[in-house]
Write a structure and sequence with these properties.
about 500 residues; Aminopeptidase; Glucose Oxidase, domain 1; 2 domains; 16-stranded mixed beta sheet; two-stranded antiparallel ribbon; about 30% strand
Length: about 500
């Protein structure tokens, strides 16, 4: 998927306001786990270490999820095996020197690019290239800039969302730095297509200096080695190259093998023969508090809550899904949606995916500073009026500021699916996919302080609201109300819980 240039973000859809209903008389929900409980779950998971597919920490998390689901009294708790690509960097280095004076050398700190090729001691000319040209890099070590997208929120509200909840008008001046460049997972591809022997990517646009960037995670093995270099070290490299013809050497040793991971599922019977799925993924690029320690906690909170609700008060059967292999090309969801296609297409009322309760950050003097504000919240929602209304009501009722309802198609431009795990369910099932995209999402800086603690309970409450709003709907009735253009009913919205 590609964003393209920022200019392309200013066209496509028209924002149309939805209503937010009120529910002042709703009874309290005592069984909802507290913020402290959910943070405790996240901290316990983080303590296990890096949670990439096939790593010990991810295997531990699977077993933890099984024990939690069983402890809540859920039924049909299952570990469904899936194949994933386990990638682990072992050693790496990058050194450059002058062609006319090999004694003038520079060692550049770097980090291996996931799923890039290996090299023992690959030598070559070091040449600067761009997506559209630059020097001839055939047979050379290609140096390229990888600039993160700076996305004005007015582009989101003006072109890509169908409704926004921004009561203090913060979006007017907000620019969000996304955790991808315009090439998304394909940063190495221009160099590969140009015949480069190796790739060095300079990371630009991060509010702090880093090279710990776990992208791509599509599990496609690249034929050449690649290293990420931070902006500061990239500047040092470019300055060295500007001094004259440069040679370089890359060494990269990594392991890459197919291993078994698991999707973890569990169920609760409800007051219907049909189903609602509530899911997230259990693996992550690092120890990863937000990606997706928070998603795990939000799914677990739903499991705990609904396990204490009498069966006849559950609007439909409920399935809880913690899929594996997110960081291995979405292997778990590909497996789940392929093997359960008829079930998803016919029996699922809505699939709800919960990812990333994230704090916004800013950069100060090259350091990452955490704020008390939430990252802008995206709610990718199928174009079904009662489903959109349920999401809008839930957002307003729990004052989930900085929220956008997004259609499931069209973002990034030209995409037929949302850039979330719910992409695998759309268009086979109605979806509600909650996601934020903080700049640190794929970096080891995704630590416990990045969790937006204040969001955990309101997001849990909002998800319960959406599920309850589906009580009078069936899989067939929702699908029958799908429309192709954004709705055109302007309504008011007032939060009822602060």
């Amino acid at each position: 998927m590609r964003f393209g240039v920022v200019a392309s973000l200013l066209v496509l859809l028209v924002v149309v306001p939805l209503a937010c209903g009120s529910d002042d008389d709703a009874p309290p929900r005592d069984p909802i786990p507290s913020t402290a409980t959910m943070m405790g779950w996240i901290e316990e998971i983080l303590a296990q270490g890096i949670r990439r597919p096939g790593y010990a920490a991810d295997e531990w998390t699977e077993q933890w999820a099984v024990e939690m689901f069983e402890g809540f009294g859920l039924e049909d708790v299952t570990l469904d095996p899936i194949d994933v690509e386990r990638w682990e960097p072992l050693s790496w280095s990058l050194e450059v020197w002058r062609v006319d004076d090999p004694s003038e050398r520079l060692s550049i700190p770097a980090y291996p690019i996931p799923f890039s090729g290996s090299a023992t001691a690959l030598e070559g000319d070091v040449r600067l290239a761009t997506e559209t040209g630059g020097e001839d890099v055939a047979g050379a070590i290609a140096v390229m800039e990888n600039e993160l997208i700076a996305l004005p929120q007015v582009a989101m509200t003006g072109a890509f969302s169908t409704w926004a909840y921004d009561p203090t008008n913060e979006f007017e001046d907000m620019v969000q730095i996304l955790p991808f460049s315009g090439l998304f997972q394909d940063a190495m591809e221009p160099a590969i297509e140009a015949g480069a022997a190796a790739y060095v990517g300079i990371l630009r646009g991060f509010p702090w200096d880093t090279d710990r960037y776990y992208v791509p995670y599509d599990a496609h093995e690249r034929p050449i080695p690649g290293l990420w270099v931070s902006a500061v070290n990239g500047d040092a490299l470019l300055a060295f190259m500007a001094g004259g013809a440069t040679r370089g050497r890359i060494a990269l040793e990594r392991s890459l093998e197919t291993v078994t991971s698991h999707n973890v599922t569990a169920t609760l019977p409800g007051n219907s023969d049909e189903w609602i799925i509530i899911g997230s993924h259990h693996d992550g690029p690092w120890a990863s508090a937000v990606e997706d320690g928070t998603g795990i906690a939000l799914v677990m909170a739903q499991a705990q809550y609904w396990s204490q609700v009498p069966r006849e008060q559950r609007p439909h059967n409920l399935m809880f899904l913690l899929n594996g292999g997110h960081m291995s090309g979405g292997a778990g969801l590909i497996h789940f949606t392929e093997t359960m296609r008829d079930f998803i297409s016919n029996d699922v009322v809505v699939e709800i995916h919960l990812e990333h309760a994230a704090r916004e950050v800013r950069g100060e003097n090259g350091e990452l500073v955490v704020t008390d504000d939430p990252e802008p919240r995206w709610w990718f929602t199928s174009l079904i009026p009662p489903l959109e209304q349920a999401v809008a009501d839930a957002i307003c009722r729990h004052d989930l500021v900085r929220s956008l309802i997004m259609p499931p198609e069209g973002f990034p431009p030209g995409s037929a699916n949302p850039p979330t795990d719910a992409a695998f369910f759309h268009p086979h099932s109605p979806i509600v996919s909650f996601l934020t995209a903080p700049v640190y999402l794929f970096d080891e800086a995704d630590t416990i302080d990045k969790v937006h603690e204040a969001s955990l309970v309101p997001l849990t409450e909002a998800t319960i609201d959406i599920i309850e709003a589906m009580a009078d709907h069936t899989a067939a009735s929702l699908r029958a109300q799908t429309y192709e253009e954004p709705r055109a009913t302007p309504l008011e919205c007032e939060p009822t819980i602060n």
